[in-house]
Amino acid sequence: MKLLSVVLPSYNEELNIQRTIDRLSAVLQEASIPYELIFVNDGSRDETWTMIQKAWQERDDVIGIDFSRNFGKEAAILAGLAHANGSCCAVIDCDLQHPPEKLVEMYRLWEQGYDLIEGVKRSRGKESFLHKLCAGGFYWIMSYVTHVDMSRASDFRLMDRKVVDALVSMPERGIFFRALSSWVGFKSTTIEFDVQEREIGESKWSFTSLIKYAIRNIVSFSGMPLKMIAYFGFAGLLFTIVLGIQTLVRYWSGNAVEGFTTVILLILLTSSMIMISLGIIGLYLARMYEEIKQRPRYIIHHHLKGKKESCETNMGLDEQA
Ligand code: UDP
Ligand code: MG
Asked: What atom in ligand 1 is closest to the CA of residue 10?
């Protein structure tokens, strides 16, 4: 049987590390799947890294990567994939909200020849009304721009080495893992799962961070908002023609004195449309600026290799980054 690498992005999950290791190792050992668990500590402010180090000392199925600061979940996933040794790699949350038993089903599908097995949410679990509303809006836009139904998509997925290599070798910095791993293609299938409730700790997403995440991902994945500016511009032009004709007719018929309200409204409307358009262009400029700088996606502070080979401290930039 071939090695399965399980990548676990971890941010402030001190109480979850050991539980997750116990659950995952029990499930995978029972299914006799050879595995390694790659914990990526994404600049946690609690004892997450200490817990990972402890687990690494005690067992030989754990690999630990420690970031120099918080780089975000996508970077953590990418780092885990870049250091995976398996013939296939799975990504799973470290808070046990993704049921580990599904990994076995995913692995079996991979053995049957699928390259990408995506976990889709049957239900979204417990979320606040505002969270549901925003997530709904975000996925509606994402589905529209990517032409893929993303409303039930998740980061829980298993990928063949081909897919992992394709992802890791992407030159772009701003990565939306969920969409990009589907974008690469190959033979894919989906598997449904129920999102479990988070038992320990809390979700890392605040309302504002979700909005930022949404904008960032839309901008990094699609140029659609830029085209929208042009569409709005054309719509505005049509409106201008109609209103212009009306204004001229009034002028010629001698009724042109009133209409100050229209002028004020039009100035307000056009200036806000211009500001929004500039803002959208600015978002893309900012992303281009970030991409052009070519900074690494993440910086690794410590790397605890598997099978207790060696422990190295790498203060420089990671080659894979
Ligand atoms: N996470 C991360 N970096 C971050 C935020 C989150 O690595 O900056 C990890 C987190 O530890 C967890 C997973 O991403 O394993 C999902 O995060 P969370 O449970 O907060 O999100 P939710 O399940 O509410 O979508
Ligand atoms: Mg969670």
From this structure: 11
Predicted confidence (pLDDT) per residue in 102-121, tens digit? 999 999 999 999 999 999 88
CATH of the domain at 170: 3.90.550.10
Q: Work out the pLDDT band at 125, boundaries 50, 70, 90.
A: low
- Token pair in block for residue 135: 């997530």
CA of residue 119 to ligand 2 center, whole Å: 14
Q: Kindly state the DSSP code that residue 189 receives in the 8-state scheme.
A: E
- Residue 168 CA to ligand 1 center (angstroms) comes to 20
In a domain, 179, yes or no: yes
Per-residue model confidence as pLDDT tens digits over 270-279: 888 888 888 8
Q: Which residues contact 49 (CB under 8 A, 6 or more apart)?
A: 41, 64, 66, 302
* Amino acid (1-letter code) at residue 193: F
Would the pTM of this model clear 0.90, i.e. be above it?
Answer: no
Domain hosting 244: range is 224-293
